[in-house]
Design goal:
436 residues, 16 strands, alpha/beta, 33% helix, seven-stranded mixed sheet
């Protein structure tokens, strides 16, 4: 394991997440990764009672600002830094865990440094990949495979474009972090009729960003892949790897419920070439889907922050992208990343739902992927409290959904439909139904 002496444990880290989803397991993963290295970890998240806040590795948790204003976040972080350090000259690493937080920190970077240690990113650079419309343009400029994407200027044009692409189509809001809470709008929707396209387009003013219509690439076994990496201040991406999505929720379309560290030279080369072309710095999470008809891997999403399952890519010495970031930003050398092909990462609550939906799905084991190479998102022997807290909150979430379905059925006097539990919607970053 990486020795604590390799890390500057005098420099604390503040995890920043403006998303309100209490089941974001990436937050817990970051706390455990840094905390086990002896680095003090603090968090700005949705609640002090969040399952992640129960971790023994989170020394303190503050509630996120009431709005997503970058000015409010910057002011809150300044207060946190004053509370957790000895003085204004003491540096703090700030680690965003969702897109809106990454954009907010980049927007305020000039006022945050040097007190806060951040990768050399600007808001415009991040918007080039985080904004779905801009990502499509970026892929077109670089000749990178990407699903056919259209940006309609009116309801009639939206219907015509959907017909041209071929129903069903994937409808996305270009900046999902602007979606209002409680309005029923999803960042990504499958639309199956022209009437649905028109209705969705009519809600553009409410959504706050442009509507995209995108070709729906067929889903299937072994088609969804991802790349996680860290590009250091010198432009080197020495820490990174490719993973294959084995199970997802919703089944075959959603976030990773189970993934495996698997060699994919094409995806890795494509990701690294893209990072070089963009001059990107920091942690990233890229999603790809193989188009079996063409044999091309299409980039679906580019998240400028750690993906929720980043702990999959933890090498035998404990190095992952979050630890690499801390080492680099504090002036420590980042050692070579040693791949552990076959290592698995399982998100217990979503994997259980996926297993219920598709119990017979099986995947061949990877070479070297024997027992003891699976990490759970929530349960850890040295940190059991978050799993217990998540379990209680998850059961309450499912109960609320069931009661809601029952009330709707009683109002309409119809039979109660089968309830398919879903995760609370995060308004940060989603892709073509391959959310991290």
């Amino acid at each position: 394991m990486l020795s604590h002496q390799r890390f500057d444990t005098s420099v604390p880290t503040v995890l920043v997440r403006l998303d309100r989803n209490p089941f974001h397991h990436g937050t817990l993963g970051a706390a455990r990764s840094l905390g086990r290295a002896g680095i003090p970890v603090h968090a700005v998240i949705e609640s002090r009672t969040s399952p992640a806040a129960r971790s023994r590795y989170v020394r303190s948790a503050r509630v996120r600002p009431g709005t997503e204003s970058s000015a409010e976040l910057s002011a809150l972080l300044a207060r946190v830094a004053d509370e957790i350090t000895d003085g204004p000259s003491h540096p703090v690493v700030a680690l965003p865990l969702d897109d809106v937080s990454a954009l907010a920190l980049a927007r305020r970077r000039s006022g945050l440094v040097p007190r806060f240690l951040l990768p050399a990113q600007t808001e415009d650079q991040l918007l080039r990949v985080a904004d779905k419309a801009a990502l499509a343009e970026t892929c077109a400029d670089l000749g990178l495979p990407h699903p056919r994407t259209e940006l309609p200027e009116g309801a009639d044009e939206a219907a015509a474009m959907a017909w041209s692409i071929g129903l069903p189509v994937v409808a996305k809001w270009s900046r999902p972090w602007l979606l209002p809470g409680g309005g029923g709008l999803r960042s990504t929707t499958i639309v199956r009729s022209l009437a649905e396209v028109r209705e969705l387009y009519a809600r553009t003013p409410e959504a706050g960003s442009r509507l995209l219509l995108q070709e729906m690439l067929p889903a299937g076994r072994d088609l969804d892949w991802f790349f996680h990496g860290y590009v250091d201040s010198a432009g080197r991406c020495s820490t990174g790897g490719t993973g294959r999505k084995e199970r997802s929720w919703p089944d075959g379309a959603g976030l990773t419920a189970s993934g495996r560290w698997t060699v994919n030279p094409t995806v890795e080369r494509t990701a690294r070439d893209l990072l070089d072309a963009l001059g990107y710095r920091g942690v990233c999470d890229l999603d790809f889907r193989l188009n079996k008809a063409t044999g091309a891997y299409h980039l679906l999403d580019f998240n400028p922050r750690p993906g929720a399952q980043f702990r999959l890519f933890t090498d035998p010495d404990g190095l992952d992208v979050v630890r690499a970031l801390h080492l680099d930003l504090t002036g420590r050398p980042v050692p070579p990343h040693s791949p552990v092909h076959g290592r698995r990462f399982v998100v217990e609550n979503y994997a259980a739902l996926s297993l219920l939906a598709a119990p017979r799905r099986r995947y061949a084991p990877e070479p070297g992927g024997g027992p003891g190479r699976t990490e759970c998102a929530w349960f850890a022997a040295d940190d059991p409290a978050p799993a217990l807290s998540m379990g209680r909150a998850w059961l309450a979430h499912l109960l609320r959904k069931s009661l809601g379905a029952l009330r709707r059925a009683l109002r309409t006097r119809r039979p109660v439909p089968a309830v398919t539990p879903s995760a609370p919607r995060a308004r940060t970053s989603t892709d073509q139904l391959t959310r991290r």
